[in-house]
Amino acid sequence: MSETSLMAMAERFLSALKHCQLLQMRVVHADADGMTLVLPWSPAIVGNPQTGAVHGGALTTLLDTTCGMATLCALPRFEVCPTLDLRIDYMHPTRADLPIYGHAQCYRVTRDVIFTRGSAYQDDPGQPICQVVGTFMRLGQQIKGGLNFGNSLKAPRP
Fold first, then answer.
1. Does 158 map to a domain?
2. Using CA atoms, how far apart are residues 37 and 100, in angstroms rounded to an integer?
């Protein structure tokens, strides 16, 4: 799959997720090496009003979505791949007023499970806010998701 078509599929995937739309998440980059999303900082996602640190639930959503979308980078065609397990190790709080980037890659793909790893960071990928590992179940190409989810990912017809 070309980088352009992968990027377009990733943007369609993200636009089909209402909670990601509400958080104003965007695709930054998608290629064979992985997926990068951005979560803009806003007062709505603050967990600690005294410091402006982002709530752990918003970070979890960013990382679960990024890891799940990294499966698009590793599979030849779209498959619904729900989360089996997600482990996040938090290292330090976010800083206020800076966007948060999530990057994930698939490091092993089996017949039934996809294994991912990644991190969240703000201005320096070498200083992660947290690290993540996740596993995702392969349901196969015949499963399209609820409410025409799979159809929403298809490229629009001219």
1. no
2. 8
Report the CATH number at residue 95: 3.10.129.10
Q: What is the pTM of this model?
A: 0.86
- Does residue 116 fall inside a structural domain? yes
Q: How far apart are CA 32 and CA 37, in angstroms?
A: 15
Which residues, at least 6 apart from 115, have a Cβ–Cβ distance to it below 8 Å?
106, 107, 108, 109, 133, 134, 135
pLDDT per residue over 28-87, tens digit each?
A: 999 999 999 999 999 999 998 888 889 999 999 999 999 999 999 999 888 889 999 999
Taking the C-alpha atoms of residue 47 and residue 58, their distance in angstroms, rounded to an integer, is 9
Q: Contact at 8 Å (CB) between 15 and 26?
A: no
DSSP-assigned letters across all residues of 61-100 = HHHHHHHHHHHHHHSSS-----EEEEEEEE-SPPPTT--E
What b/e sequence results for 65-94 when a residue is b if at least 16 CB atoms lie within 10 Å of its CB, and e otherwise? bbbbbbbbbbbeebbbbeeeebebeeeebb
- Domain with 10, as residue range(s), is 3-153
Q: From the DSSP assignment, how many helices (H) and strands (E) are in the chain?
A: 4, 8
Structural domain tally of the chain?
1
Quote the CA–CA distance of 107 and 32 in Å, as a whole number: 11
